[in-house]
Amino acid sequence: MLARYGQFFLKSWFPDYQGSTSGVSLQRLLLMALFWPLFLLVQSINGIGLLLDHVLFPDFRRVTVREPLFVVGVPRSGTTFLHRLLALDDRFTTTALWELLFAPSITQRYFWTMLAKLDRRAGRPMGRLLLWCERRLLGGLDGVHKTGLLDPEEDYLGLIPVWGCFLLVLVVPVPALWRLTFLDRDGSEKEKARLMKAYRRFVQRHLYFHGEHKQLLSKNPSFTPWLETLSAAFPDARFIGCVRNPNQSVPSQINSILIGARIFDGRDTTGYWREGFVAMLDYYYRHLLTALASMETDRQALSVMEKLATEPGSTVLEFYAHFGWEAGEEFRARLAVQDRKARQYQSGHAYSLATLGVDTATLNETFGWVYERFGFPRPEQVSR
Fold first, then answer.
1. Which residues are registered as beta bridge partners of 71?
2. Which label site among 156, 178, 327, 380 has the fewest CB atoms less than 10 Å from its CB?
């Protein structure tokens, strides 16, 4: 019995497992030996903090979530850029990476902010050390997704304690995590209710700490297959869906996931991730447009990366006008700065379709309808 359970978990963790650990890389075994104790320690501390909230700050459960804005869409389609543009407006509050990983509770946030104040009075020795560690650990990801502990980040990381974060699939590629990428279609009502309850509590904690008068700004491409569930749970929410030419979004997303896969696996698993992500991205495009179209017009808008990248300021202001929001002068000035930067920006990213195993025939066959819908150049028209 124990042997059968052991093999089940090995097959879940390692897709190519065939009855022994010979197909498992030494790198993965060593990394898992380091990852799991650290992961469980952090989650245990976070769990204690979440429990303390009910004792120290019980009123957080009465916080009303008003008109949250969700930035969703196809991964690698400008969601991060749009998120950080919108975060320039003081009307919003959004989650920082440090809060998501090390302070999902109100208790922890007060603890760490108090410690940060003491550190500043002492000349910031801990702050400088933390910055040094951050650059060593996160600096290598700048070419894929530049981030820091103080930067706005995807709040689905706040669902790690309830296994609602798809990113965990890099560590435990089990069907339950893959199902999150088709939640509206394949998730049970019980699972949806569980995730929405946990997410609402997370948002209530965030607003309790940062200000109940604020609007939540959430950016999560992984929430795209949750659109219908989120819309039902937050009936006054607004949604901006982001799309981009598949010529860029598909290889970019596969490349970004492969970086994590190589770290956690140590073997060439390109085929496994390519197959899974091509199907997933096809669903993302389809579900995004279908779900947005089913909502009231004044609750949803569409952002096309090719326009957002060249005209960020005017694009954001168009969204504000569409939602009936007033853009303050200070926010407009900040957007003007981003407009000037956009005119000077040149992307250094280049992805080889052949290297990633994504041929032009696959792109045309899978995403042909996207090219036609938006008038995007097809892959054979793209110069290499």
1. 219, 240
2. 380
